[in-house]
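Lab notes, practical 5.
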Amino acid sequence: MTAKRLIYLVDDDDAVRRSAGFMLKTSGFEVEVFASGPEFLRRIKQAEPGCILLDVRMPGMDGLEVQRELNTLGIAMPVIVLTGHGDVGVAVTAMKAGALDFIEKPFEKAVLLSALEEGFAQIERSDRTQSRASEATMRLKALTARENDVLLGLVRGHANKTIAYDLGISPRTVEIYRANLMTKLGVTSLSEALRIAFAAGLGDVSANIRHG
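Output from the prediction step:
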């Protein structure tokens, strides 16, 4: 879970930055304001996780261009797009590119806060997922190379005999490796072992298995 609720407000309108920034700060958020897309992008590369309030209509580099650059950089923070009246088509484009929501100006406080709550909930879900992935990866490090090979076979849905054939060992040896890896992972069922493997990303591995 994020330690603080940080918001990046990107809008070329000084009045919006002042009024929205003040409202958000008095609502308990920490706010960083930016007058342009390039200024924001220079900061965001080293920024802590937070929600991004991004104006669409900005001179030079508009909000959609900023959003594309965020995607290119692999920055997956929740983006809430701020649009003017009649910019629904632009808002739809932004949401197709991954924006969480869009809000028309002038926006109501309750509408904005509701969107931000969903944004921070998304960050917390992502944090929990990353935490589970890190824990699972650490647990898998306890396995030997051959135990890992057997686990990969199980992830692919293979029976012990198939795994044994692929690895050039006996089914009995596969059973021993399987029992050992489950002990090391601290699980008592195959489903528990698979959940750990999937959390660590083993479901995305290539079909190559070491032989020998």
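Observations recorded by the TA: Residues 205-212 have pLDDT under 50 and may be disordered. The chain has nine helices and five strands.
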